[in-house]
Amino acid sequence: MADKWWETAVGYVLNPQTFLDSNGDGVGDFPGLTGRLPYLKDLGVNLLWLGPIFASPMDDNGYDVSDYKSINPMYGTMEDFDAFLKEAHKLGFHVLLDFSLNHTSDEHPWFQKALKDPTSKERDYYIIRSGKKEGGKLLPPNNWKSFFETSAWERIPGSEDFYLHLFSKKMPDVNWTCPELKEQYYDALRFWLDKGVDGFRLDAIAHLAKDMSFEDGTQNIDAHGLSYDLTKFSNRPELYDILKGLRDEVFSKYPCLIVGEVGGDITPENALRLVNYGDGVMNMIFHFDTAWNNGAYESYDKSDADIVTDVIQMKDNFMRWYNVLNGKADMPLYWCNHDHPRVLSQYGSEQYRNESAKMLLMTILFLYGTDFIYYGDEIGMSNVHYDSLEDFAMHDSGNRGEIAALQAKGYDDERILHYLNRTSRTNARTPFQWNHKENAGFTTGKPYQKLNDNFPSVNLQDEMEDPYSIVNFYQYAISFRRDPVINDIVLHGPLSLIDRNHPDVFSYIHEGSEKLMVISNFRPYTVYFSFYFQINDILLHNYGDVIIKDHVFELRPYESFLLKIR
Ligand code: NOJ
Description:
Elements: E1 11-14, H1 30-35, H2 37-43, E2 47-50, H3 78-90, E3 94-100, H4 109-116, E4 128-130, E5 132-134, E6 137-139, E7 153-155, E8 161-164, H5 179-195, E9 199-203, H6 239-249, E10 257-261, H7 268-275, E11 284-286, H8 311-325, E12 332-333, H9 343-346, H10 353-365, E13 370-374, H11 389-393, H12 397-408, H13 413-423, H14 460-465, H15 470-481, H16 484-492, E14 495-497, E15 505-511, E16 515-521, E17 527-530, E18 535-541, E19 548-549, E20 552-555, E21 560-565
Helix pairs in contact: 10-15
Bound molecules: 1-deoxynojirimycin.
């Protein structure tokens, strides 16, 4: 862990299938991505996290892997990947791959062998248990509920056994107590590191350790008796040892960055155990505590007016993590990713697209950690307005599970559609909008995922031509953020909130060799903010003039400042 190169990086997260299609088959691919590396370089990012790229039947966006040492033919060949990696390195990027260690696809040869032959060694790679007999009926081994709303167990046809799947039934969970399974994963991870990739985002890492007694869950029991009990399969103490094995056998041998996705209610204290500078087993973790601070999660019964950002809760969530991890561990900084709706629609506003996109960037950029920008945020991409459930269901088993569950609860399709347009992760998986021409310049074929129909007015080409555009602001702000003096302040200077109780404004000071202050209005209307500091310079601002009277800022909709203060 000697050279912590990520501490001077700004990351960019992208979905390979919706970035750029070079061969007209409607799916983004490596040649397309390679051709756009100069754009990303100009934007100023230098660390790329690619969504899953391995062979996969694509039940869950490629997180259902059927061969860990291959490239999904949708994206090109291994040679195309090698050419991409070489070019990316030449241009100064580091590259992270997304790697699922919690489950494979049911089409993975390991699982196929496990199914076919109960005596095979692969049988122990998975979690397979006999069903329970009750009143002449064969029931799953326990009441655990999957993240995709069904029982977490699926019966193996022709037998009385069931396999565990915490996500879709096409994604059987693997068994991290099996020594040979571990070796298989060590080997696959080394394969990519030996090729030169710079690290991984480890998917669903929170769930690798399960309660192997498989007792029934006791929390969140639904009408069908299914229990969504995270204590049984999330962030359990045994997780540390599994990750330690990975660190000692693989990661510690390479100068790589390991970012774990640790959703599911982890506390900052437990996270610190995993990522601390001393005996940590990864470098950073992604949690989701700051992603849904507007009440939109599971908001089927809410009207649009009920969805309001709780700015105080958001500030507290950022600071809760900062207070525990700062100086002891690295952290990523991000708003949302491919599992959330677009941040502009979450916390910003389509009406104030330009102002709110810039405000969101300024707010996140100078907190504590390594910034990760989500593709398309730099041009103000926002949620879709699809008019059919099928557009959501088509490529996402998560959406399919949610639609079925809501229909079963009696919600009509119109309401479900409204809810998905607000919250579905498909919102953040639409093709990048390169220009205002056919299919936004993403493909000459039929796009894999339906485009956001706002591309005639929201696209990179138009943005580039406007000096006040979001993308030009991003470029300037990122280059400012990467300045070594600023980077040092962001990583090593003390951070504190100003006016924590202000319900509309997120303001903080980050001190170091300079004193930086961010003031951001999260509302679509004017608010007031008292200010008693001396301004040395306005470093970034998303309006043309400043209104301050008697030590009170008048902040217009989504107005935001980065100030140098004394
Ligand atoms: C987390 C990923 O980010 C999400 O997209 C996926 O559905 C699950 N893990 C399962 O792999």
